[in-house]
């Protein structure tokens, strides 16, 4: 089967006035349909750069990225990208913000509007449709952004630390909800997170990057038993702690590089 995402020799340098800085170098990776992979690694190792390239927002300096076998030339409705900041429009109410992706792709109708309301309810935002972003907490706004991304049902979902600003309990609930929703839909996802236990709990593979320049240091496969448990219970599975420590050790080496 054709991989959903394929990176071949992807290299990116940011060009300044007098110098170029190499953000990522020679990244090679294939991600199959329905896979959920996490990217972890020290700050500045190129996680956001890589997601922006896969989203078609940034053209790599060298190498090739294909999504479903096609070289990426720009943003596409097939690829949902949730950024670190929520970027809600302050003058739109919550429902209108959440439905923005549907509106922009010409898919907003009575049915999809109701779907948006349902998803807002599921994310613990019942009764907030008419509110404005300024009236919501940071965690709530982040969940609205998540609904906006999920409701267009993209085949590939890119998530840049979507849970990092949330309270621990809400974060665990959302991990479960998102992972269940994606599994059910067969969505392929790439999650950036600095929470290693989250990475192991939700994904099939954990990809550890190192910095200066950003490279793939090591890829860890999550055992089936952990992968098939809901994230909340994955943490209790045998092998979880061992894998955590194995990746942790390697992370320390990557961070000190
Ligand atoms: P991460 O998301 O892993 O923290 P980034 O992809 O944001 O890493 O950054 C990778 C490297 O590229 C860092 O050294 C960062 O300073 C640099 N960088 C990121 N964005 C820009 C930019 N717009 N212009 C110049 N350098 C950048
Ligand atoms: Mg980042």
From TrEMBL:
Annotated ranges, domain ABC transporter: 5-236
Gene Ontology molecular function: ATP binding; ATP hydrolysis activity
Gene3D superfamilies: P-loop containing nucleotide triphosphate hydrolases
Keyword Kinase included in the entry's annotation: no
PROSITE patterns associated with the record: ABC_TRANSPORTER_1 (PS00211), ABC_TRANSPORTER_2 (PS50893)
SUPFAM superfamilies: P-loop containing nucleoside triphosphate hydrolases
Domain of life: Bacteria
Record keywords: ATP-binding, Nucleotide-binding, Transport
PANTHER family, per database record: ABC TRANSPORTER ATP-BINDING PROTEIN, TAURINE IMPORT ATP-BINDING PROTEIN-RELATED
Name the record gives this protein: ABC transporter ATP-binding protein
């Amino acid at each position: 089967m054709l991989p959903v995402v394929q990176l071949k020799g992807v290299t990116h340098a940011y060009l300044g006035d007098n110098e170029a800085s190499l953000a990522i170098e020679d990244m090679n990776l294939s991600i199959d349909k329905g896979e959920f992979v996490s990217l972890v690694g020290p700050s500045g190792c190129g996680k956001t750069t890589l997601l922006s390239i896969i989203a078609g927002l940034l053209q790599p300096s060298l190498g090739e990225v294909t999504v479903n076998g096609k070289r990426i030339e720009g943003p596409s409705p097939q690829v949902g990208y949730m950024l670190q900041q929520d970027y809600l429009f302050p003058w739109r109410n919550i429902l209108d913000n959440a439905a923005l992706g549907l509106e922009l792709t010409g898919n907003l109708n009575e049915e999809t509007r109701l779907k948006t309301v349902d998803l807002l309810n599921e994310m613990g935002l019942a009764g907030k449709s008419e509110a404005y972003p300024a009236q919501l907490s940071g965690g709530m706004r982040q969940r609205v952004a998540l609904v906006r991304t999920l409701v267009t049902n993209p085949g590939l979902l890119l998530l840049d630390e979507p849970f990092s600003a949330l309270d621990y309990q809400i974060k665990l609930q959302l991990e479960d909800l998102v992972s269940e929703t994606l599994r059910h839909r067969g969505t392929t996802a790439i999650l950036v997170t600095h929470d290693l236990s989250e990475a192991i709990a939700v994904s099939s593979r954990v990809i550890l990057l190192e910095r200066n320049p950003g490279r793939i240091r090591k890829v860890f496969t999550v055992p089936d038993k952990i992968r098939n448990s809901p994230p909340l219970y994955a943490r209790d599975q045998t092998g979880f702690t061992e894998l955590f420590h194995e990746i942790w050790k390697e992370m320390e080496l990557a961070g000190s590089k």
